[in-house]
Amino acid sequence: MSRISVSLAVVLACSLFSFASEARSECLNVASPNPLTLRGTLTFQIFGGPPYNGGVTKGDTPEPTYILKLDQPVCAQGDDFVDPNAQIDRVQLYPEFAPALYSKLRALVGTRVRVEGKSPFGAHTGHHHAPLLLPFSSIDRDSDPTEAYGTAMTTVQGFYLALAAGSGEQAARFIVPEKRMKGPFSAVAMTKFYGALDEPLMLQDVVPVTSDQYRVHYTFVASGSKRCNGAAIVKTIRIRDENLISSIQALNGC
User: Fold this and answer.
1) Helix, strand, or coil here: 184?
2) Alpha carbon distance 137, 100 (integer Å)
3) Element at 22 (helix H, strand E)
4) In CATH, what class is 147-250?
5) Residues 167-212: tens digit of each pLDDT
6) Which of 1, 126, 151, 248 has its CA 20 to 30 A from that of 189?
7) Cα–Cα distance measured from residue 105 to residue 202, given in angstroms and rounded to the nearest whole number
8) Helical segments of 32-181, H only
9) Where in the chain is the domain with CATH 3.10.450.50?
């Protein structure tokens, strides 16, 4: 082999090594303690557990499982139970600290979500039903911001963002005229309550139920009260060229 050929081969080998190293560096490092955000579609399935006879209908213990189907497959490294050359498209989820998060899981099945957690690890027992598992601390609907364009969803979003700022005056603008002058939807009443919270309202998500109804999730802490993990059905009505809120039905008392 000529010197030119040998040099070319060395350059090519170095280039391939560099490319492989770069590709490997883009894999998830499951050994890292840094927070991780994943996006995908949340699914639910019941797997068979012990004694592992071939399924629940054959006597196996039912194991309800929430799995995130990733938008894009990923590779992972840093764990003896993860193959860094494999493409992972499923991640099993379970709450890191708060069992109450299971209620959010149930509500979000079948939707595209954003999950935040840390310290993922590779499957290594019969209770693990996806290549990668993630203890998560939060999960929310990850909607396309353009989904609200031209719909009443923007009115609902605006209303709750005004409450988050403690501004009853701004929030009242999104209520039908006959309900914004007095009562619980008046500017004064809403400012008095939402402006004095120990922890301001935080809007979690707005999900369309029908063309004029939306399911809203939010949190806040009122003075001397426990945290409200709230949900409500908000109905809207078209008046002339505006979408306004006609009623709000709280689903869990806050």
Assistant:
1) coil
2) 11
3) helix 3-25
4) alpha beta
5) 999 999 999 999 999 999 999 999 999 999 999 998 888 889 999 9
6) 151
7) 19
8) 101-108, 153-164, 168-172, 177-180
9) 147-250
Q: Which residues pair with 64 in a beta bridge?
A: 46
Alpha-carbon distance of 114 to 137, in angstroms, equals 11
**pLDDT band for position 21 (cuts 50, 70, 90):** very low
Single out the residue of 205, 12, 10 nearest to residue 111, CA to CA: 205
Could you give the C-alpha distances from 77 to 15, 37, 66, 206, 214, in angstroms and in order? 22, 16, 23, 36, 41
> Cis omega before residue 51 (within 30°)?
yes
Six token digits for residue 223: 């003075």
Looking at domain 24-141, does it have CATH number 3.30.1490? no
Q: Where in the chain is the domain with CATH 2.40.50?
A: 24-141
Pairing between strand 242-250 and 227-239?
antiparallel
pLDDT in tens, 45-82: 999 999 999 999 999 999 999 999 998 899 999 999 99
Q: Could you tell me which residues come within 8 angstroms of residue 46 by beta carbon, excluding any fewer than 6 positions away? A: 56, 62, 63, 64, 65
**How many other CB atoms are found less than 10 A from the CB of residue 60?**
18
Residue 111 CA: distances (Å) to CA of 62, 63, 68, 74, 115: 24, 21, 10, 20, 12
Q: What CA–CA distance (Å, rounded) separates 31 from 137? A: 18
Q: How many CB atoms lie within 10 A of CB 130?
A: 20
